[in-house]
Amino acid sequence: MSESLQRRLVRQASASYRPAGPWAWHFARGKLARDPVFAALLRPGLLPATGRYLDLGCGQGLLASWLRAAAALHAGHDWPAEQPAPPRISAYHGLDMQATAIRHARQALADCDFPTRLDLGDLRDFALPDADVITLFDVLHYLPGTAQESLLQRIRDSLPPDGRLLLRVGDGAAGLPHHLSRVVDSLVVRLQGGTWPRLHCRPATAWLGLLGELGFRVEPFPMAGAGFANVLLRARPI
């Protein structure tokens, strides 16, 4: 993706957060500009052309705002010819434990042109609705090991045969970069009003092995930038 397109996307996607206040807007703008996962979402073939999204640990709903901005630029013909068409959201359901984040998401996504639902709750006992794409970005390490496995099994059981789980996890074997990412994740939780979390991490090879044992076919996608030991994984039911 070109730098010019990324700047336009960041500007449009973050503008939705201005009604939620300066903190929500600055956080959205900084995260969308610096986190490589958002550019990765526009890779050809990573996501279906359209689908229902379940965003677990959605935070401020940045995923929905980013893909909405991409769809708007594409529809308005402000889209480079060499860049494939972006994936579109047909319905979006977000869940997060942080009340402040959910409040900001509701304000930013209030005028979406697709059905949007944002719930405050714990994903460990959340009844998973029907979805074509389930996302878990930097979330699993907040859960103890048995809860991680239980959630992933429930996701596997809920996805349709052509469904996709897209998750980003830390590589617990990566040394200093991994420790840095843990500190950043913990600070974000504190700044959003949560308590200092206890993190439960695994090496990347262990994540791949666990997903395979639970009945997923997994494809890793490298992510450049940010300096952290994070791995983007696409998992599909076998």
Could you give a short description of this structure?
This protein has 238 residues and is an alpha/beta fold. It has helices at 3-15, 22-34, 36-40, 62-75, 99-108, 145-158, 176-191, 204-213; strands spanning 50-56, 88-96, 116-120, 133-137, 164-170, 216-221, 230-237. Strands 3-2-1-4-5-7-6 form a 7-stranded mixed sheet, sandwiched between helices.
The computed structural class is alpha/beta
- How many β-strands, per DSSP? 7
Helix content: 25-40%
Architecture in CATH?
3-Layer(aba) Sandwich
End-to-end gap: 31 Å
CATH superfamily: Vaccinia Virus protein VP39
Largest sheet: 7 strands, mixed
The CATH C-level name is Alpha Beta
Strand order of the largest sheet: 3-2-1-4-5-7-6
- How many individual helices? 8
CATH fold description:
Rossmann fold
How many domain modules?
Answer: 1
The unreliable regions are none
Rg computed from alpha carbons, rounded to a whole number of angstroms: 17 Å
The gross shape turns out to be globular
Helix-strand sequence:
HHHEHEHEEHEHHEE
- β-strand amount: 15-25%
Mean pLDDT: 89
Descriptive overview:
By secondary structure, the chain is α/β, with parallel strands linked by helices. The chain has a single domain, classed as Vaccinia Virus protein VP39 (Rossmann fold). It is 40% helix and 20% strand. It is built from eight helices and seven strands. It has a seven-stranded mixed β-sheet with strand order 3-2-1-4-5-7-6, sandwiched between helices. The chain is globular and about 45 Å long. The chain starts with a helix and ends with a strand. The model has no long low-confidence stretch (mean pLDDT 89).
